[in-house]
UniProtKB/TrEMBL annotation:
This is Orc1-like AAA ATPase domain-containing protein. It comes from Cyclostephanos tholiformis. Residues 363-542 form the Orc1-like AAA ATPase domain.
Length: 1284
């Protein structure tokens, strides 16, 4: 419900209410001599400039302008609004609708500030303030208005009693018979008359002095009997001024200004260029002054708005800023309401005089793009697998937009970590990731010994364990959290150090996110310059957190970064296959209107006033935000856009800006800005640009000392000029384009010489201080210079050695892509006859490059390196490392026959023969091994001597690779490999590979029936691992050893051993061992009746990892199980694994290969098909695959727990088939399965007793002994419940 009051009464009441509230809040000045409050003039002035009054007055003004806009909103009904007739005092025709909701005095005092002339302050209690208000003017809000001559209705006192006058519902003109349609009244007339209303509204009820003078003259004429018609043909309407000559048709001008008065054509573009019309000596008025409004403390923007409305009626005062349309008036008022800080409030000239024009992060808008990022982030932390990428050309605002998301998320407690890739810093391992995580550690260290820091440190020590030192190589500041001793670790060989560091990074992020209970946002800028190792780490992070939803990755890159041939584009395609959605936000350049909006916001002026300036800037900048910002800074610096102290706003000289010869692109503009600086500063900037977008101050100081050139002080000058920033001990260019501009100042033919000079100068400093970071920077600079920059052959060899040292350091930091780059560069610096003249260095470089190629799965590079070593190696032993890399690569690529053949050949050359073995030799080789170990107690074996012969250590590695391959293609020959491994260990000492030999031997012993003895050797293997301290093969030892322990301990206990094995193997970079444990964990979880929905998630994640790391053999076992799970959950064939893991298209091919090359793969495939048909009671298909299962030589060569499911369900199926066919072969198969399961139950009641009872029941049922069958069925159910 609302009440109605006239505008003039509203002004009177609102001013009084605001003035009184102002007095009460500020304790207005009280004169003790006169015993009076401060004058009413002071109170009125402070009231009209107070925020409550201005806010309400602006709402009224905007509402009136809305009604007078010529353009009718289609939603308003399609009719033109009525306006008061030209001869009407418009202010008297305005009525205000107010809300009847009651408010406290607090609402009036909310935004008021104490006045400077206050002498005391009353109580701040709202109740006391309300009482004071009622005691001073108890009837302040109660007014009664009589009908006026225009027929306005009477406002009843009790309807408006206690109405809050700042709660304006709407405002409108009261209708009269004399009103006319908007189209019948001149636009200028409406703007001018409304301007008079605004003058009265914002002055607190006062009218312009010129209007009052004119009214006094008219009154005097009436008193003396003078007819107004004799003066001007018709009476002047109240609120209009006679500015025309005596012979002007005033009314005609108002009504037909567009047709009859070209001088006043508001659309005439040449209006300002015409000669001003001379005023007649008979003109009765001058321009209306808004100076009284300024004296009341009214904002400059409001004073200018009213002035520009009133100027339109007098051609002598029309200027560019004068309003031409009511729409412009309405839009400017709306901007004041929407953005008062920019378009209403006065500028802080004192501050701006110091800071100049400020371009903040939000100035370029991007609302829709920012919303897309927000939604992507929200979906990610709500459980969806998602990341986001911002794409656009350089200078488009990608980093600004990402930082806005960081501020948004940080406000909710998230951690926003950022790093940046650099084209000239690609030789620094994990540069962007290290920068981001280093910053987090630095922030955390600044908290001192806070409880949260100690909690994070404790959890990191537990998660990282002894591997923390490897991560410390990448994140040096991690030591600030972990404390002393964190960097110590065993420098032992690692199967895949890059996989290890990726896993450790995942653990690090997981710990810091869980400790804070908030997501981690990792923003990496300029991904088009990213290195392969960093992209692999990012991919691992995305997959690691795919089910934990504590990590959100945000990247930015230029358009070329999304091309398929670029590594980052390939990574995006890959993660999409694994179910991770990537939101791509593409940024475009600003259009002309948006550019004007930005200029308007920057200068705090209406868009209509900045249009001409923004058009010039858009023409030059083409809408590129960075180019735009540099242009604005340049214009301000040159004084073409400047502050006006008299007008208290920004102003510019349009003609000079238009005629200014500006560069056509941002590169030229930036170059011109740099060349304005002193030569010494230019030189320092060029030097800094050679190191990329940023560089440590320590490096710059070292270079300054070695070369004897000034760098630090000139760069400080560049900092003052805003070209370079100095933050956290780093000099960094303000933008990539600035670095490019400085770098382009160096002549292209001289750049290689400068790079080489800087690199050679820094090398000595790096070696003296053992500074790995500076070593990377120095060698990278030399490599950028290239071979042609060095003329001395001896110096080339030195550089090759430096590259080898840097590559080894990079391998220690697990960046094998970077390490390979160093080794490759080192090879290019070698002289032509390097194999003859520098054999050892050549062999070292090629061997190291080969190992890196293996880790990178770069088969082509590995082949090239291998060919060179095989061609020039002087000794067979010099080829062993390369041969081992090739054997491993073939095994990873599922080329098991080739891998086995090469390994057997190498072992033969090492004097270790492996004769072909038949099934009959299986137990013979086991017995030979037992004889070899006879007489050794467990302690004797654990404390045995350590192997030191290099050739024997390499032979053990080849045997270990051969053992696992034999399990797939020649299982009967596996014990012969085990025998050789243990024989070498006894003859030459224990090596890091010896625990594998004892583990597999324990498996073979158990296969022959002695499970207890087999477990003994598995325990010996675990103790050897602890004693030797190597974790290179620990994952495989735990995976295979735990399979045997499942037969003696409850499955609920032993299944967690595989989780331990996965963690240890990942920490050691042993992907083979890690994936083996992961696959076993999933299989056991499924067969031990874990809930299907949980199994599905685990299997899908495991399949993603197996496919990512290329372990097709294991994938061939897991994918069919995943398909079985989905079928059991009711999924159709069309809804199978293709939606879960992105690699289902490979299922048939993988299974085909597995059946062809793997004995166990063939058994697994047939069993899984039999099981699914059994579960769906499809008898014929079940029987067909069961026949295939039993026809395949189903010798249990090794103890795998999943094999127990094959035995159990094979027995159940055999009993069913026998009942249907009465074929005794099936009855015997069922009985054999029962006997085997009963034997296993003797060592583990917990895992097998209920299965043995169930097979007894099935056999009894086949024999028609229903009583016995019922008894065993009940016993099976009881045992299962007991051991669940």
């Amino acid at each position: 419900m609302s009440s109605i009051i006239s505008l003039r009464e509203w002004i009177k009441c609102a001013v009084e209410a605001a003035g009184l509230a102002n007095e009460l809040f500020a304790s207005s000045y009280y004169d003790p001599d006169s015993n009076n409050w401060a004058s009413g003039t002071i109170r009125r002035s402070s009231a009209v400039s107070s925020n409550p009054y201005l806010n309400s007055a602006l709402v009224i003004a905007r509402s009136l302008a809305d009604q007078l806009c010529e353009k009718v909103d289609e939603n308003s009904g399609g009719h033109l609004p009525l306006s008061p007739a030209p001869g009407t005092d418009w202010a008297d025709r305005v009525v205000v609708h107010l809300s009847n909701e009651r408010h406290n005095i607090d609402d009036y005092t909310e935004d008021l500030q104490p006045l400077p002339f206050s002498s005391q302050r009353p109580s701040s209690d709202p109740k006391e303030l309300q009482a004071m208000l009622n005691s001073v003017i108890p009837d302040l809000l109660s007014y009664t208005k009589n009908d006026d001559e225009e027929g306005a209705s009477t406002c009843i006192a009790d309807e408006v009693n206690n109405v809050p006058f700042h709660d304006v519902v709407r405002v409108e003109f009261s209708h009269s018979q004399n009103d006319e349609l908007c189209s019948q009244i001149s636009e200028m007339q409406r703007i001018y008359n409304l301007g008079l209303v605004f003058y009265e509204l914002f002055s607190g009820g006062e009218r312009p002095p010129e209007i009052n003078t004119q009214n006094d003259t008219a009154e005097s004429m009436r008193k003396h009997g003078v007819n107004e018609d004799d003066v001007d043909g018709e009476p002047l309407p109240l609120g209009r001024l006679s500015i025309f000559n005596d012979d002007d048709d005033v009314e005609g001008i108002f009504k037909n200004s567009d047709d009859c008065c070209p001088l006043l054509d508001v659309n005439d573009e040449n209006l300002m260029s015409r000669k001003k019309r001379a005023s007649s000596s008979n003109c009765t008025s001058n321009a209306i002054s808004i100076e009284p409004l300024r004296q009341k403390g009214l904002y400059v923007s409001l004073c200018d708005l009213i002035n520009n409305m009133l100027d339109i009626i007098n051609v002598d005062f029309i200027k560019d800023e004068t309003y031409r349309t009511m729409t412009d008036v309405r839009n400017d008022l709306q901007q004041m309401l929407d953005k008062p800080d920019r378009f209403l409030h006065d500028l802080d000239l004192e501050k701006l005089a110091i800071t100049g024009l400020q371009l903040n992060e939000a100035v370029f808008g991007r609302k829709m793009d920012f919303t897309d990022l927000q939604n992507s982030y929200r979906r990610s932390i709500s459980g969806e697998n998602e990341c986001a990428v911002i794409v656009g050309p350089s200078g488009i605002g990608k980093t600004v937009l990402a930082n806005r998301l960081g501020s948004f998320a940080s406000a909710d407690g998230a951690f926003f970590l950022s790093g940046k890739f650099d084209q000239l810093q690609q030789m620094t391992p994990f540069s962007a990731l290290a920068s981001a995580f280093n910053e987090y550690c630095h922030r955390m260290s600044e908290r001192g010994q806070s409880r949260h820091r100690q909690e994070v440190a404790t959890k990191l020590r537990m998660a990282l364990g002894g591997e923390a030192g490897h991560l410390l190589k990448v994140i040096p500041n991690l030591g600030l959290i972990l404390g002393e001793g964190a960097g110590q670790y065993d420098d032992q060989d690692c199967a895949n150090a890059q996989a290890r560091i990726q896993y450790l990074l995942c653990l690090f992020v997981d710990v810091i996110s869980r400790s804070s209970g908030a997501p981690i946002i990792l923003f990496l800028d300029d991904l088009q310059w990213s290195d392969q190792a960093s992209l692999s780490a990012i991919k691992q992070l995305l997959l690691f957190f795919s089910s934990k939803r504590q990590f959100f990755f945000l990247g930015s890159c230029r358009e070329e970064g999304l091309l398929q041939q670029h590594s980052f584009g390939s990574m995006l395609t890959s993660i999409r296959q694994f179910g991770v959605h990537a939101t791509v936000v593409t940024l475009a350049c600003l259009d002309k209107n948006t550019t004007n909006t930005v200029v308007s916001d920057l200068l705090c002026l209406s868009p209509r006033l900045t249009r001409t300036l923004s058009d010039i800037i858009f023409q030059k900048s083409h809408g590129n935000p960075f180019f735009f910002s540099q242009l604005m800074i340049s214009l301000c610096r040159d004084g073409l856009v400047r502050l006006s102290l008299s007008r208290r706003r920004w102003e510019w000289e349009e003609e000079k800006v238009q005629s200014l010869k500006l560069p056509d692109n941002v590169a030229a503009l930036l170059s011109s800005n740099i060349t304005r600086l002193p030569k010494e500063v230019q030189s320092a900037l060029c030097t800094l640009s050679c190191f990329g977008a940023r560089s440590d101050c320590v490096l710059i100081e070292a270079l300054e000392t070695k070369l004897g050139i000034p760098l630090t002080e000139p760069l400080q000058v560049a900092v003052a000029e805003g070209i370079v920033d100095k933050v956290d001990g780093k000099f960094s260019f303000g933008h990539d384009k600035l670095q490019e501009a400085a770098y382009n100042l160096i002549q292209a033919e001289n750049r290689c010489l400068f790079h080489c000079q800087y690199g050679l100068a820094l090398v000595q400093h790096a070696l003296e201080r053992l500074d790995d970071g500076m070593l990377f920077a120095a060698v990278s600079q030399i490599n950028l210079g290239g071979r042609a920059a060095i003329e001395d052959p001896k110096q080339c060899v030195t550089v090759a050695n430096l590259n080898f040292a840097a590559g080894i350091k990079a391998m220690e930091m697990s960046d094998f892509s970077l390490a390979y780059s160093f080794f490759d560069h080192g090879i290019t610096f070698l002289p032509k006859r390097h194999w003859q003249e520098h054999y050892d260095l050549s062999l070292q470089l090629f061997e190291a490059a080969g190992k890196c190629a293996l880790v990178k799965s770069d088969a082509l590079s590995l082949k090239l390196v291998t060919d060179q070593i095989f061609k020039y190696a002087k000794r067979f032993e010099d080829k062993l490392n390369t041969m081992f890399n090739n054997v491993t690569a073939l095994a990873y690529a599922t080329q098991l026959p080739g891998s086995v053949a090469m390994a057997v050949t190498v072992l033969s050359q090492l004097g270790i023969e492996l004769p072909e073995s038949s099934e009959s030799d299986f137990k013979i080789n086991i017995e030979r091994t037992k004889v070899l170990l006879r007489g050794f107690a467990d302690e004797d074996l654990v404390d045995y001597k350590i192997m030191s012969d290099p050739s024997k250590i390499m032979a053990m590695k080849f045997l270990a690779r051969l053992e696992l391959s034999f399990q797939y293609i020649r299982p009967a020959s596996a014990p012969s490999v085990t025998l050789k491994m243990i024989q070498l260990s006894i003859d030459h000492g224990m090596s890091p590979v010896s625990p594998i030999g004892f583990t597999y031997f324990g498996q073979h012993v158990a296969t022959c029936g002695d499970i207890e003895e087999g477990c003994r050797y598995v325990k010996i293997a675990r103790k050897l691992l602890d004693r030797i301290g190597s974790k290179e093969f620990a994952g495989e030892v735990i995976a295979m050893g735990s399979q045997l322990l499942h037969f003696v301990k409850p499955i609920q206990v032993t299944i967690e051993l595989h989780h331990e094995g996965y963690t240890i193997a990942m920490g050691a970079g042993d992907m083979q061992g890690a994936m083996l444990n992961l696959a076993f964990y999933c299989g056991i979880a499924f067969w031990s009746t874990t809930k299907l929905i949980i199994c599905k998630e685990r299997f899908a994640w495991t399949c993603r990892l197996l496919d990512q790391h290329g372990h097709s053999n294991l994938l061939s076992h897991i994918l069919p199980l995943l398909k079985m799970i989905q079928l059991l959950m009711g999924k159709t064939d069309q809804e199978d694994t293709s939606k879960s893991n992105g690699v289902a298209a490979q299922v048939e091919e993988i299974l085909k290969n597995a059946k062809q090359i793997s004995h166990t793969g063939s058994i697994a495939f047939n069993f899984q098909q039999m099981y699914i048909h059994f579960m769906f009671r499809e008898f014929d298909n079940m029987k067909m695959f069961a026949e295939r299962c039993f026809c395949v030589n189903n010798h249990n060569w090794i103890f795998h727990f999943p094999f127990t499911s094959q035995m159990f369900y094979g027995g159940i199926v055999a009993c069913w088939v026998y009942r249907q066919t009465k074929d005794p072969t099936w009855a015997e198969r069922g009985r054999s399965a029962k006997v085997t399961i009963k034997k296993w139950a003797e060592s583990s009641h917990h895992n097998f007793q209920h299965k043995a009872y169930l097979l007894e029941a099935e056999e009894a049922f086949c024999n028609n002994d229903t009583d016995k069958a019922q008894l065993y069925y009940e016993m099976a159910v009881s045992s299962a419940r007991e051991h669940q």
